[in-house]
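REQUEST ID: PR-0412
SUBMITTED BY: lab tech R.K.
PRIORITY: routine
TASK: structure prediction, single protein chain
INPUT:
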Amino acid sequence: MKRFVRLPMVLEMKDFPGHRWVGIDVRKTPLPDWCLNLCLLHQNLVDAVVVSDPQGIGGVKLEFRKDHGLTGAQRARVRWDPTTVSLHLSPAEIETWVKLFLEYYRDGIAAQEQLELQAPPVDAAAKVAFVTVRLAD
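STATUS: complete
OUTPUT:
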């Protein structure tokens, strides 16, 4: 089951030779919903969380999936579709995100300003993704 949420996050995307950058600004307003959805994904209660932003990247949705096939140093993979950027995260990476965002929610201040992630493509012909998740105070 996919969970579709519309959160006031800022989603950005820029193309560069050989890779694509995806920026996500997580603000305090949607933080409870964001934390809940990450926890649902972490606990395997949903297959994916699909986020859209009304002022975001031209109607493109950002999908987060848990990928049990990623192990060890593999943190993520990306799949590019015309309307969806699908970020497949390892179980360990999702656990890291859950901990960071729950602490941000609890304390009202982020332990770090951003998460950075390099995700090779699922399709070998596609571009690598560099993902930056910024925590806005």
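NOTES: The mean pLDDT is 86.
REVIEWED BY: pending
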